[in-house]
Amino acid sequence: MTSRLMEAPSSATAHLYLREDRIRQSYEAMMLAWRTLNADCETLLREKGLGPAHHRILFLTAAHPGITPGALLNSLGITKQSLGRALGDLRERRLLVQEEDRHDRRRRPLRLTEAGEALERELFLMIREVMTRAYREAGMTAVEGFRRVLAPLQVPTESPAR
Question: Which helix (H) or strand (E) element contains residue 110?
Answer without folding.
Answer: strand 110-112
